[in-house]
């Protein structure tokens, strides 16, 4: 029996489903999850010592590659001085200054430990600041697992959402309106009718949790104009896109200045660190300055801050994002060409260090289009690639991630592997 399977069976006895986050269980693609023994650069090794080229990168954080020596050294250096104090440190100010420097929309920032905490806190803050209850999110966007965001669309326009998870009272989601991504007309109608009641709109500015979906320029510009007009707080949830799609994040690519931004993944460099920040007048409503409560025992943890700050410095090396984008675009292009050669209906897209693979004829622009793609074929491709030693996200609805450690050679190896895999499916 493979060691991966052995560990999976053992893990299932004491951990629900054998995993600590659901997508890791391979539920949607089937088969045995790979247990990671170690990782370096663009690769990791599983419990059976098989090597993989990794296109998840811990779901985004590993943008400089796994176990980057400078990041590891920074973590080791601070760890010997103590792991957590529950009192402020200078490094927290340094990373706040770094984030404010890179994001002009962020005047003040608060550190937390997960993206879920960041979005949950940003929404509470937006409600406290505006004195309004209603919030808007878009179908297919994921903003962590807090109650009011685990919601699916109601039955009609302006009907508020229903819980999409057990354990969430309908009362908790009745203030969350779910609209369609890229649907400008629906957005305009909604704001015309109830704009003055909406506390905030939370957006994945480039969606990465329903595969990769880009917004239209009209959609993001309309959203900014309407939220501004109605005094609604615009939250860019850049937990995934932050510092991955561009040094200035998705907001720089859009030329949009959101009121609040949430960050995670890359800013922790692989450690539990996330943040929310934005306009100083809004951030001033947070405790201890204001009456919106928010706190965290491990917030701004020194080891996490060391990993994050070091990562943020590494990605500012000249040409970092240009190289990352070029290699990711080459990967996407090469995969699409391989599919064409094999006569498989599969297209790809990319932005910065993120890419999407879609088993359909055209790049989707909405959740409905993504979910109409050929999932069975994706699953066969996923397993064929796994056999080839390429680890893609184990779901047709997730984006892929490239790191700067993915050299041109590794990208070409991946494309060659895809050619063989596509010929087999
Ligand atoms: C990953 C993610 C989150 C949640 O972050 P966690 O650290 O997993 O809680 C929130 N929003 C977006 C856009 C994400 O991709």
UniProtKB/TrEMBL annotation:
<dbReference type="InterPro" id="IPR015422">
    <property type="entry name" value="PyrdxlP-dep_Trfase_small"/>
</dbReference>
<comment type="similarity">
    <text>Belongs to the class-III pyridoxal-phosphate-dependent aminotransferase family. HemL subfamily.</text>
</comment>
<dbReference type="GO" id="GO:0042286">
    <property type="term" value="F:glutamate-1-semialdehyde 2,1-aminomutase activity"/>
</dbReference>
<keyword id="KW-0413">Isomerase</keyword>
<dbReference type="InterPro" id="IPR015421">
    <property type="entry name" value="PyrdxlP-dep_Trfase_major"/>
</dbReference>
<dbReference type="GO" id="GO:0006782">
    <property type="term" value="P:protoporphyrinogen IX biosynthetic process"/>
</dbReference>
<keyword id="KW-0663">Pyridoxal phosphate</keyword>
<dbReference type="Pfam" id="PF00202">
    <property type="entry name" value="Aminotran_3"/>
</dbReference>
<dbReference type="InterPro" id="IPR005814">
    <property type="entry name" value="Aminotrans_3"/>
</dbReference>
<comment type="subunit">
    <text>Homodimer.</text>
</comment>
<dbReference type="InterPro" id="IPR004639">
    <property type="entry name" value="4pyrrol_synth_GluAld_NH2Trfase"/>
</dbReference>
<keyword id="KW-0963">Cytoplasm</keyword>
<keyword id="KW-0627">Porphyrin biosynthesis</keyword>
<dbReference type="GO" id="GO:0030170">
    <property type="term" value="F:pyridoxal phosphate binding"/>
</dbReference>
<feature type="modified residue" description="N6-(pyridoxal phosphate)lysine">
    <location>
        <position position="265"/>
    </location>
</feature>
<dbReference type="GO" id="GO:0008483">
    <property type="term" value="F:transaminase activity"/>
</dbReference>
<dbReference type="InterPro" id="IPR015424">
    <property type="entry name" value="PyrdxlP-dep_Trfase"/>
</dbReference>
<keyword id="KW-0808">Transferase</keyword>
<comment type="pathway">
    <text>Porphyrin-containing compound metabolism; protoporphyrin-IX biosynthesis; 5-aminolevulinate from L-glutamyl-tRNA(Glu): step 2/2.</text>
</comment>
<dbReference type="GO" id="GO:0005737">
    <property type="term" value="C:cytoplasm"/>
</dbReference>
<protein>
    <recommendedName>
        <fullName>Glutamate-1-semialdehyde 2,1-aminomutase</fullName>
        <ecNumber>5.4.3.8</ecNumber>
    </recommendedName>
</protein>
<keyword id="KW-0032">Aminotransferase</keyword>
<dbReference type="InterPro" id="IPR049704">
    <property type="entry name" value="Aminotrans_3_PPA_site"/>
</dbReference>
